[in-house]
Amino acid sequence: MGTASSLVSPGEVIEDGYGGEGGEACEIPVEVKPKARLLRSSFRRGPRVIGASFKSTGSVDLEYAAEYERLRKEYEIFRVSKNNEISSMQKKEAKLDEENKRLRAELQALQKTYQKILREKESALEAKYQAMERAATFEHDRDKVKRQFKIFRETKEKEIQDLLRAKRDLEAKLQQLQAQGIQVYDLNDSDSDDNQTTVTAAGTQCEYWSGGVLGSEPSMGSMMQLQQTFRGPEFAHSLIDVEGPFANVSRDDWDAAVASLLQVSPHVPQALWSNTVRCYLIFTQETKAELDVFIKKHSPVLRRMCEALGHFYLNVCFPEENAASYAVERRQEIERSSVCVLLVKSTVTSSVVEDCDEAFVKNPDGHPLVLYLRTEEDHNLTGPTRQLLERVNAADKAAKVKVVDHSGSAEEGAELIYLQVEKVIKQELLGLEGADVDSMDSGIEEGREEDSGDVLWDLHDEQEQIESYQQACSCSTTSQLGFQKYIDRLNDMIAAPPPTPPLLVSGGPGSGKSLLLSKWIEQQQKQSPNTLFLYHFVGRPLSTSSEPVLIIKRLTVKLLQHFWSISGLSMEPSKILEEFPRWLERLSARHQGNIIIIIDSIDQIQQAERHMKWLIDPLPVNVRVVVSVKVETCPQAWRLWPTLHLDPLSPREVRSIVNAECQSMDLKLTKDQEKKLERHCRSASTCNALYVTLLARMIIRLECLQCQDTMSLYRLALKMTLNSLNTDREQHIMREILCLVCASHNGVSESEVLDLFPELELPVLSTLLYRLNRLCIVTLRCGLIRFQHLQAWEAVRSEFLGGGSSLAAYREKLIQYFSQQLSQDRVTWRVADELPWLLQQQEDRTKLQLSLLNLFVSQNLYKRGHFSELLAYWQYVGKDKSSMATEYFDSLKHYEKSCESEDSMTKLANLYETLGRFLKDLGLPSQAVAPLQRSLEIRETALDPDHPSVARSLHQLAGVYVQWKKYGNAEQLYKQALEISENAYGAEHASVARELESLAMLYQKQNKYEQAERLRKRSVKIRQKTARQKGHMYGFTLLRRRALQLEELTLGKESADSAKTLNELGVLYYLQNNLDAAKIFLSRSLEMRQRVLGPDHPDCAQSLNNLAALHTERREYEVAEDMYERALGIRKTALSPDHPSLAYTLKHLAMLYKRRGKLEKAMPLYELSLEIREKSFGPKHPSVATALVNLAVIYCQLKKHIEALPLYERALKVYEDSLGRSHPRVGETLKNLAVLSYEEGDFEKAAELYKRAMEIKEAEPSLVCGNAPSRHSSSGDTFSLRGPAPLPQAQR
């Protein structure tokens, strides 16, 4: 029998018939069990029998043969069967081969089908993408059509607004006719006595009547020129009159007053000249000991204090021995000084007398003054000294000079001077009354954040822009440039109907583009008070002012400031650029006038086209954009815009500039020189404003005529200045200073220059800067020495730095200086601005990372809003957001180990909070939670759980939960922060408003619109009230500066205008609740009017009326009563019996009588006031209804209910007919009638009237706010009808 192994031999390869690969055949062992019978017979053991028979042997053979035959047959049978099986298997194999071929054919068919379907799918996807592109194009076209339709709609709406404005003007004229005694009835005329407002949401206007009290004699005059405000009456309680208002001033006018002050603010002299506290010290040899001690011991303390607050400090003094050679510089420094200190003993020199006359006698109100007089028994004052002190005393009419009389040692005297100067800096210069030196830094930062919500703001950037504008406006050559033709063309282009693309002002370098734009802004602000101007002057490349994100952020914040809210502004750089056009569109719709955006030298911005894409989109209908560029650097896409090109100067304009400059130098040119100048200034490069100005100031050097462009002229100016210096050392210092300014980020300060060059004396530095400024090379801006023009910067690079190849050495010098300050833990805004930037320019990534890991450097950058700059530094280092967060957190953990004192723990909490806010703004809320939570823990432990700083931590932590959409947790934290803020500051603080706004936004995200609107309206009321008290971010400071400017106008001859100005100042101080200052100015106004106009003039009655109102506010009722009676007597004599001003005085005197319980004296005055109103306005005017209610209140308090009832009913009918049945005054009159009915016993009628009054009150939208009314509003006066009103208690 065979086995399967016999079919193939080992090692033989079998081909796979199914298409598989060949394989090697293996021998398969088969076990065959032997036959038992055969084995037994064949191998039977045992002894063989020798004598066996043949038969036995033969039988064995036979058995073998039979067995063999049987085995052969079995083998044949087995072989046949296996052959049959093999043939069967071969048939099956052939069949399987056929099946395999069929399946392969089907597979190929399926693959072809798949490829076909795949191609069809790709075709379908391509068709889908094409459809999507067509849809996107359609969307874009649709948006474009929508924008065009919106512009068309806004144009028509603007026309309607113009018509409405014209209507209001006519109504105002009708009111003036009315005030003049002409009887013209108009439903929309204002009640001339009702000086109240209804609070509305920001940006909306009440549709009541407009006008102010006593329109015939405005005490605010031309100073305010406020835009017309719409004021609606408050609710007519039992006493509807405002307590002690001014003649025509409501504190609700404060919003408009701040807006007006912002418009004129660039012209107001600043308390700090260029962000520097300049202490001018006048001394003699006898007081030099005190001066030395003050400079060495106390000046560093003052400097650290000022630098911690973001200002520079500089002592300015000229030695006696060479003071005469610095006469011009001394006058300039006195003019710039913030405070002047005179140190005198017994004798004085001529230079001391000159300085004292300049500082103390000629302009005693220009700056704070300190007089240190050292007295000793054996020393008497000499004649000149005594005369000088007498002149100083005579000039000090307002007693502003702080006198320090000392007879002790020089150290004690220096200590007294230091205390006075420190007090002046804190209180008068920086407005930090009662502030502690150690806590001022954090306090100021917190205050700034409270003013601006979560938006981080850099006042230095803003001051730089203001000073750039001021310097351009004050340029002496502007009047000779003939800009009026360009200004007229600008006005025409701005007045063109929308849509209007941006306007391009182009010209060569130095052609006067900045001067033109500044002059145009100045004129437009005077002519168009309702127009909002947002301007930005771009500095040299790579400076902070040329950073596109900071530019757009500043413009956005400035825009949002005028609408009382800057919440919701993102800090992410890309989002700032993306969201600006949306903010512009939203807020322009709320602004009543035009918005004009001016960006000067926009081509200095790196990649301006990419960052200023919003310029290409259609602008809102009331928005105009003006940008200036140089012709050669203007992007190609912008050249299609309407363009105003500045042509070269004409020969007449060149002569005008040269003559003006020569006249200022007391120099007269000969005719030959004039002809040479005329021949020289004929090419385009020699006929621009900068070249001609610089040429005129260098005219004494004949070689200047060889310079054919501004760059060569600047290089000659540098050589001239070098040659004018006395020593080689001074020349070297000048080169070094200019090179350092060129190598720095934003410039260097005077104090930094004096630190870098210890041997340099301030008089030499002052002279050098004066000469360089005179030659248009450098200027001081925000306390930093900077180049006036880009060509000056390029000239210094070319002349002293070999085109910039030597910049690295000077940058290294600055790096060493600021690194030294960093090692002394003096992290000022200057260190944060300069050091990281310098390290980046030096490509030193390791040191840059170390400087960024100094937590106070990063905190300073972040808190001043330089978010994008900080992020760019980390990107340059090569760190992503997560690794940067880890680095900061590790650094904070390391710093925490060294914190032990309470002050250090407070700083640590601030650092943790800053890190958390930074990470939140980066979009890393998960990593922001840990530092914010740690900040909260530290503040709760180190301070107190109810400390306001804890509320700040809760607020920031809630913001993270809002990003996570965990609104429940965020709401709980916001409410905790709100409760802490209310307990710490009161219910009407800016911090409370911030928490209310955050809660409102949270409720809006949750679709809880009713709750959100209620909180938002309450927040708006708080914002408006705090803004009225101190202005918004700069309002209070601007108000003080405006007051100073107006006060200076009164220093001349006494006149009616001067008295009017004094009255205006008193009103302004009243608006900021400074009653002491208001009393001084109003009293001076009264005295001057009595001397100039006579004691019986109506203007004297106005001053008496205002003073009476002020005394009423101070609870000095007897004095107020006397002044009201005097004012009433004058007006009865001078005015007609039915004059509204007479009614006004009658009303407020009657109100005062009523407050004091003199009801019998008040009643005839109210009756007379009612008669005057009926004659002036007619019997159906709302003002008459007001007088009826006032008289009815008096009758009720005198228990004359029968006389009061018809007055109330008549007033109710007039209110319903003139104002409507649902007006708040109708509701308050109904309430008074209900009380009267209750007193008479008619309870059913009382209930009906009271129910109707409550329905009107609940329907009034302005009452959804939960705040109690102000004590200055009529709604706050809730006298009962049951008896005489008690005197109100003082709330101070």
Automatic annotation (TrEMBL):
Cell inner membrane in keyword set: no
Gene Ontology annotations for the cellular component aspect, listed alphabetically: ciliary base; ciliary inversin compartment
Keyword Cell membrane: no
Residue span of region Disordered: 1-20, 1264-1292
Location of the Nephrocystin-3 TPR-repeats region domain: 811-1049
Compartments reported by the entry: Cell projection, Cilium
Residues in Nephrocystin-3 alpha-beta domain copies: 272-431
The Nephrocystin 3 helical domain, residue ranges: 652-800
GO annotation terms (biological process): cilium assembly; convergent extension; heart jogging; Kupffer's vesicle development; pronephros development; visual perception; Wnt signaling pathway
Primary site of residence: other
UniProt-listed InterPro entries: NPHP3-like_N, NPHP3_ab_dom, NPHP3_hel, P-loop_NTPase, TPR-like_helical_dom_sf, TPR_NPHP3, TPR_rpt
Residues in Nephrocystin 3-like N-terminal domain copies: 499-625
Pfam families, alphabetized: NPHP3 (PF25022), NPHP3_hel (PF24884), NPHP3_N (PF24883), TPR_10 (PF13374), TPR_12 (PF13424), TPR_NPHP3 (PF24885)
Segments annotated as TPR repeats: 951-984, 1101-1134, 1143-1176, 1185-1218, 1227-1260
Keywords: Cell projection, Cilium, Coiled coil, Repeat, TPR repeat, Wnt signaling pathway
Coiled-coil intervals: 82-180
Protein name: Nephrocystin-3
Record organism: Cyclopterus lumpus
